[in-house]
């Protein structure tokens, strides 16, 4: 899954544009996976970004804009692999909100994820281990 990671790394630093203008690079993540109706870069885009990276690398993808949609694709991993999908919960561990990105590394307190919409940009950010839901391995198409 490092090929997905390499595609994501080429997007590193892409960010939202504050105000009425919208970054066409962020919008391409939505449009290329079939959500042409999205017309702004303020909409949550972590799942759109991972979908776009997976699609570009020739892997299965959810086409869904919900981060937790990644819980229903591929297979669950007990141990993470570089570039695998990481799904986290937000707000409530049993609620609908989440975050998704690509695994980089972890320590006892944090998981480091390469993803989109992390402080409104593509970057590597750390998230508390307590928010972890699953690691997933997706398949080549």
What does this structure look like?
The chain is an alpha+beta fold and 141 residues long. It has a single domain (2-137), classed as endopeptidase fold (from Nostoc punctiforme) (Alpha-Beta Complex). The chain is 21% helix and 25% strand. It contains three helices and six strands; from the N terminus they run H-H-H-E-E-E-E-E-E. The chain has helices at 2-10, 24-32, 46-57, and strands spanning 75-77, 85-89, 98-106, 110-115, 123-128, 132-137. Strand 4 (110-115) and strand 5 form a beta hairpin. Helix 2 crosses helix 3. It is globular. The relative contact order is 0.22.
Write the layout of secondary structure elements.
Layout: H1 2-10, H2 24-32, H3 46-57, E1 75-77, E2 85-89, E3 98-106, E4 110-115, E5 123-128, E6 132-137
Antiparallel strand pairs: 1-6, 2-3, 2-6, 3-4, 4-5
